[in-house]
Amino acid sequence: MDMQKMTASLQDWTAALAALEAVPAADLRDGRTGLVIVDMVNGFLTEGVLSSPRSASVLPAVVRLAQFAKEGGLPTLAFRDCHEPDCIEFETFPPHCVRGTTEAQLAPELEAIGGFTVVDKNSTNGALTQGFCDWLDSRPELARLVVCGVCTDICVMQFCQTAKKRCDQLDRPIEILVPIDTVETYDAPGHDADLCGAMALQLMQQAGIKLTKEVAYDAR
Known about the structure:
alpha/beta, 17% strand, 8 helices, Rossmann fold, globular, two-stranded parallel ribbon
């Protein structure tokens, strides 16, 4: 695909994302919905080599969603990227979120809410952790997971796709729902946030993930 076609395709997809409908918050209070927060840790938001103001920009939307989940009794799991100093992932990414440092801690605004299960992960894909599998398997009533956090094209996308396909493998019906105002990625040389984020959302949709504009808290 040449650059002109790629640009036109991105513009079309961006317009499609802008036309998405919001999901009423009341629809999520059905006793069958859980919330998964991906990597809203200091090391991706406010400090360290992988932190990004763009990633940090979704914190208010994630905090509001977490507060809604707590008030509504939605089971909630929060992933923390957390590594040993010699972990293999540092062959791919620069050292970040080392265990025992403030980078590996959840954003203080989320810590203040609390009431959720915390699962540390040693790779980009939280769906591979035993903690997540145990959390989901012990809640057979859950038929929907709302997913938020960072980064859209790495940890969020990998989690959503793997969690969905794991449930497919087990013949467990589940909807993975991503409010696009609660996910974000970073800008860096060779990593255009607009392009990478949009492509990730498209790939997720093609894999059976449902996208929504936002959660409408005031919807009746």
